[in-house]
Design brief:
Length: 478
């Protein structure tokens, strides 16, 4: 039987406010355990929550960025359940009336194919604390610093059909929340984490299969592996005559498998009810327009501008708009070079990205500024150096040896464009290889590369390739 994979994602993005969603306690990461958990965060008797306006502004900003409808009136509810790191015994969240309602979409690219993923809703809620299981002599420590940190939970429709699509969506969402400045996206610190609802059904069936939720995926690599494993598990289970049970599962990266965590709860298990300490949140048109004004040019609009304005293919435009910092670097390099956006794109996506990845750096930490890279590309454009020599100069610039012009001068790397000097090299090579000349003249044009290689070696890589090719063809033609 052929199976169709059905995936929906729920993503928790921590909003980067300075204080918590219902208290004035700090949200800074890395403080000593329990030093940033105030009386409101742990619900001591007699304390009352006060809503953080900045959290609403960031949530609205997200809704506008994905084109969703903003509820002008939303309500906070208490979701009751017990976890050791949930000090209140309930979580303040939104259920019936979230701040961001349906209607939003996020466009993803998988290979050369684009797809719109529907956003069901995005609601605000508070984060729980954190359980620490190491270095406590067999005991678990509870750190409540994170308790009360504002989140938005972003829920998709079950529109994703493979682990590749799920990862593409998660990466696009991760880029977007950082792009619009509402979340730092640090997955290692738990600022951005995903839950994947995975099910399978026979191809052609309209009925959804029984889903399992894989919790707290905080790496794109683990997300892909967890979904692929869970799909295999469910298909094998059904084909062996078993039944998939709706449950929550965890992914174990050491064993590369998912395992059961608990049976899946339904909404009625949480006994939701409106929080009696919080009035409904009402926002007006002025508030929404202020949030809209805070939005930068969005990734999709920038991708389209890069294609129409710079003449870049869709792949290049998508890659260069993976982050605002990368897009800005590209535009600055093009402006400094004055032309040839494709040359800038090729070097940024190629040599620069490879060097950044090798050293584990973000574009913001690049040792080469956009102006310095443009300085190197100017020398390629004006024929001072060849593309091959440019790679040598780039490596030296990356190592901190200075700017392109200084390195070219110090190493004597200027390209030989003197036609007389190139003719002399070509004549010597032709005279030394009569057999290969005869082969070329008999129609074996592949031998041409043999002559190019010898000429470049003789010129120590400095011969102007265009001139060399022209002179070689003329001489070999007799």
């Amino acid at each position: 039987m052929q199976w169709e994979i059905v995936i929906g994602l729920e993503t928790h993005a921590q909003l980067n406010t300075q204080s918590k969603i219902f208290s004035g306690a700090a949200t800074a990461y890395g403080a000593a355990p329990n030093s940033q958990a105030c009386a409101v965060d742990i619900a001591l008797p007699g304390v009352l929550p006060v809503f953080n306006r900045a959290a609403a502004e960031k949530a609205v900003r997200f809704g506008l960025a994905v084109g969703a409808r903003i509820n002008r009136r939303s309500v906070f509810e208490r979701k009751n359940y017990f976890y050791p790191d949930l000090p209140k015994g309930y979580q303040t969240t939104q259920l019936a009336l979230p701040i961001v309602a349906e209607g939003g979409t996020l466009r993803i690219q998988v290979g050369d194919r684009e797809k719109d993923v529907r956003i069901t809703r995005a609601h605000m809620e508070e984060d729980a604390g954190k359980s620490l299981h190491e270095d406590f002599h067999g005991m678990t420590g509870i750190d409540l610093n994170r308790a009360g940190t504002p989140l938005i939970e972003i829920v998709t429709e079950p529109d994703l059909r493979s682990s590749a699509e799920a990862v593409a969506y998660a990466k696009a969402l991760h880029s977007l929340v950082r792009w619009i400045g509402i979340c730092d996206g640090n997955m290692q610190e738990g600022s951005f984490r995903c839950d994947a609802n995975v099910s399978v059904r026979p191809v052609g069936s309209e009925k959804l299969g029984t889903r399992c939720e894989i919790k707290n995926l905080n790496s794109f690599k683990f997300m892909e592996k967890a979904i692929d494993y869970e799909v295999r598990r469910q298909i094998e289970l059904i084909e062996d005559g078993g039944t998939v049970v709706q449950e929550t599962r965890l992914y174990d990266p050491d064993r590369d498998e998912t395992r059961s965590m608990r049976s899946k709860e339904e909404a009625n298990d949480y006994r939701y009810f409106p929080d009696p300490d919080l009035l409904p949140l009402v926002i007006d048109e002025v508030f929404v327009e202020l949030a809209r004004a805070a939005l930068p040019e969005l990734p999709q609009a920038m991708r389209e501008r890069f294609m129409s304005g710079y003449g870049l293919p869709a792949y290049d435009a998508g890659t260069l708009t993976a982050s605002r910092e990368l897009a800005a670097y590209f535009e600055e390099a093009v402006a400094a070079l004055g032309q040839d956006a494709k040359l800038c794109a090729n070097w940024i996506m190629g040599d620069l990205s490879a060097a950044l990845n090798k050293d584990g750096l973000d574009i913001a930490d690049s040792p080469l500024s956009s102006a310095e890279l443009a300085g190197l590309l100017k020398r390629v454009k004006d024929g001072t150096i060849s593309g091959k020599i440019a790679k040598e100069v780039f490596a030296a610039m990356w190592a901190g040896e200075g700017e392109a012009d200084a390195i070219i001068e110090a190493r004597g790397l200027k390209q030989v464009s003197d036609s007389g000097a190139i003719e002399k090299i070509v004549d010597e090579i032709i005279n030394a290889n009569p057999a290969q000349v005869a082969e070329y003249r008999s129609g074996k044009e592949k031998v041409f590369g043999f002559f190019v290689g010898l000429a470049m070696k003789a010129s120590k890589g400095k011969a102007n390739p265009a001139q060399l090719n022209e002179i070689l063809k003329k001489k070999l033609a007799g």
